[in-house]
Write a structure and sequence with these properties.
Blueprint lengths: L2 H20 L30 H12 L21 H13 L10 H17 L15 E5 L2 H23 L5 H7 E6 L4 H10 L2 E5 L9 H13 L3 E8 L11 H10 L3 E5 L24 E4 L1 H4 L7 E5 L3 H6 L31 H35 L4 E3 L7 E6 L3 H14 L5 E5 L2 E7 L7 H26 L1
Parallel strand pairs: 2-3, 2-4, 4-5, 5-6
Antiparallel strand pairs: 1-7, 6-7, 8-9, 9-11, 10-11
Helix pairs in contact: 3-12, 4-12, 5-7, 8-9, 12-14, 13-14
The structure holds pyridoxal-5'-phosphate (PLP).
The site of pyridoxal-5'-phosphate has 15 residues, from helix 5.
Protein name: Aromatic-L-amino-acid decarboxylase
GO biological process, one term: serotonin biosynthetic process
Keywords: Catecholamine biosynthesis, Decarboxylase, Lyase, Pyridoxal phosphate
Length: 481
C-alpha cells in the first residue's frame, strides 16, 4: 500500500468508524452467531496476491460485525466500562505511525518523557500525595502498564524484592528460598481474581480475608491476620486494597488498612482499576482517604476515563524496588544517559511498550478536566436514576450501596428467579448484563458503560428488565396454580 492509497483507505475507515459509533444504538448489543461462524465466511488461507482495500473494508461489515459484542452500545451494561473516545483513537493512529518500542529513554525519548509528565498530570488530577509524583523531585513516579493485573503483579514483585532485602540482612542464615516460603500477602475475598493470580504467578501465599457487611476489608481483620501469621513464624509482606470491587463496587477501608500495613512494614498496593477515574472529581476523594500510606496505586484510564485500552496507570513511591528487582542489563540495551530518566523496561514485565502516553495527552487536552468530570458525574447520576427505578418496584431489591456507575439488584426471593431473569434479558439482546454472587446471593449488575448512554437508554433497559420479570413471574405463578 502506498501513501495515496493509505490516505484514501484511512479516510474511508475514519468515516466508517464515526458512523459505526454514532449509530451504535441501532445495533443489537449481543451477536446471535454460533461458535465457528467466522471460518466459512473467509478463505481457507491467506491470499497469494494482494486484495483491494475496498474489499477488505466491505468484509468488515459482512464478516466481523455479525460477531461483535458492541461494548459501546448505550445498553451494554456488563462487566465494567472500557473506554472509547475520538481523541484516543486518533492518538493510537499516531502511535501506530511512530511505532517505536519505548523500553529505554534513548529508544524514543518523547515516549518516555511524555509518559513521565502525563503520569504527573493525572496524579495531580487525582490529588495523589506528592510522594507518588516525579515532579516532586523525590523517588516516586508513575508508569503506564497494560492492565491492572500487571500492576498488581509488578507491585507484588517489588514487595517481594523489598522483603527479601530486609530479611536477608536480619536473618543471614536463611536462604532466599526459605524466606520466600515464609512470605504471606493479604487481600479481601472481594478483590479481583487477578490479585489471586498475582500470588500464583509470584509464587507466594496470598490470604483472602473476609469483608464486613458492606463488602469492605477492615483494618482490624487485616491486623488480626498479620498477628496470626507472625505468631506462626511467617513474614507478612504485601497487601492489596481494592477501591471499587468488581462484584459490587465496594471500597476497602484504606484509612484503616494503611496504618496496619505501615506498622508491620507490609507493602500496600491499591487497586482502583475502575473507580479510580472518579477521583478526578473532588467529591469522591473521601474514598481515597489513607492513600498517603500506600506504596503503590493503580487505576485504569482505559476503563472509565475515555482513554482506549490499553492504559493502566500505576504510581510508586519507590520504584527502585522494581528497577533493582527487574534489572537485567545487556549491553545492547545500555545507553549513555542511563539514570537521567526512567528506562521503563525495568518497571514492567515485557521489554516492549507502545507509545501509550499519547492517548492520555490527546484525551486530557481535547476534553479538559471539566468535561471528564462531567462525564464521570453523568454516569453516576444515570446509575442513581436506574437505582430509583429499581427501588420503585417492590419485586426487586438493591443489594449494594450505589456509589459509582454500578447498580447491583435482584428479584426478591430465590436465586433461581434472578438467574432466569438475566438469561431472558440477555437472550433478547437489547441489553447485556452479567451477574455476580456474594455470600450465595445471586444478583444482576448494571454498569453504566458507554459514553453514549442517556437516561432514555436506561428507560429502555428498565423496560426490558420489567417486561422479562413480568413474564417470568407470571409463568411461575401459572406453574404453581
Ligand atoms: C477491581 C479490579 N481490579 C482489576 C481488574 C482487572 O483489570 P485489567 O483487565 O486491567 O487487568 C478489574 C477488571 O474489571 C477490576 O474490576
Amino acid at each position: 500500500m502506498d501513501a495515496p492509497q493509505f490516505k484514501e483507505f484511512a479516510k474511508e475507515m475514519v468515516d466508517y468508524v464515526a458512523n459505526y459509533l454514532e449509530n451504535i444504538r441501532d445495533r443489537r448489543v449481543l451477536p446471535t452467531v454460533e461458535p465457528g461462524y467466522l471460518r466459512p465466511l473467509i478463505p481457507d488461507s491467506a491470499p497469494q496476491k494482494a486484495d483491494k482495500w475496498e474489499d477488505v473494508l466491505a468484509d468488515v461489515e459482512k464478516v466481523i460485525m455479525p460477531g461483535v459484542t458492541h461494548w459501546h452500545s448505550p445498553r451494554f451494561h456488563a462487566y465494567f466500562p472500557t473506554a472509547n473516545s475520538y481523541p484516543a483513537i486518533v492518538a493510537d493512529i499516531l502511535s501506530g505511525a511512530i511505532a517505536c518500542i519505548g523500553f529505554s529513554w534513548i529508544a524514543s525519548p518523547a515516549c518516555t518523557e511524555l509518559e513521565v509528565v502525563m503520569l504527573d498530570w493525572l496524579g495531580k488530577m487525582l490529588d495523589l500525595p506528592k510522594e507518588f509524583l516525579a515532579c516532586s523531585g523525590g523517588t516516586g513516579g508513575g508508569v503506564i502498564q497494560g492492565t491492572a493485573s500487571e500492576a498488581t503483579l509488578v507491585a507484588l514483585l517489588g514487595a517481594k524484592a523489598r522483603a527479601l532485602a530486609k530479611f536477608r540482612k536480619e536473618f543471614p542464615d536463611l536462604s532466599d528460598f526459605e524466606i520466600v516460603s515464609k512470605l504471606v500477602g493479604y487481600t479481601s475475598a472481594q478483590s479481583h481474581s487477578s490479585v489471586e493470580r498475582a500470588g500464583l504467578l509470584g509464587g507466594i501465599k496470598l490470604r483472602s480475608l473476609p469483608v464486613d457487611e458492606d463488602y469492605k476489608l477492615r483494618g482490624e481483620t487485616l491486623e488480626n491476620a498479620i498477628k496470626e501469621d507472625l505468631e506462626a513464624g511467617l513474614i507478612p509482606f504485601y497487601a492489596v486494597a481494592t477501591l471499587g470491587t468488581t462484584s459490587s463496587c465496594a471500597f476497602d477501608r484504606l484509612d484503616e488498612i494503611g496504618p496496619v500495613c505501615n506498622e508491620h512494614k507490609v507493602w500496600l498496593h491499591v487497586d482502583a482499576a475502575y473507580a479510580g477515574s472518579a477521583f478526578i472529581c473532588p467529591e469522591f476523594r473521601y474514598l481515597l482517604k489513607g492513600i498517603e500510606r500506600a506504596d503503590s496505586f493503580n487505576f485504569n484510564p482505559h476503563k472509565w476515563m475515555l482513554v482506549n485500552f490499553d492504559c493502566s496507570t500505576m504510581w510508586l513511591k519507590d520504584p527502585a524496588w522494581l528497577v533493582d528487582a527487574f534489572n537485567v542489563d545487556p549491553l545492547y540495551l545500555k545507553h549513555d544517559q542511563q539514570g537521567a530518566a526512567p528506562d521503563y523496561r525495568h518497571w514492567q514485565i515485557p521489554l516492549g511498550r507502545r507509545f501509550r502516553a499519547l492517548k492520555i495527552w490527546f484525551v486530557l487536552r481535547l476534553y479538559g478536566i471539566e468535561n471528564l468530570q462531567a462525564f464521570i458525574r453523568k454516569h453516576i447520576s444515570i446509575a442513581h436514576y436506574f437505582e430509583e427505578l429499581v427501588r420503585g418496584d417492590d419485586r426487586f431489591e438493591i443489594t449494594a450501596e450505589v456509589i459509582m456507575g454500578l447498580v447491583c439488584f435482584r428479584l426478591k426471593g430465590e436465586n433461581v428467579l434472578s438467574e432466569q431473569l438475566l438469561k431472558r434479558i440477555n437472550a433478547r439482546g437489547v441489553v447485556h448484563m452479567v451477574p455476580s454472587k456474594i455470600n450465595d446471593i445471586y444478583f444482576l449488575r448494571l454498569a453504566v458503560c458507554s459514553r453514549f448512554t442517556e437516561q432514555g437508554d436506561i428507560d429502555i433497559t428498565w423496560k426490558e428488565v420489567r417486561e422479562n420479570a413480568d413474564l417470568l413471574l407470571a409463568e411461575k405463578k401459572n406453574h404453581i396454580n
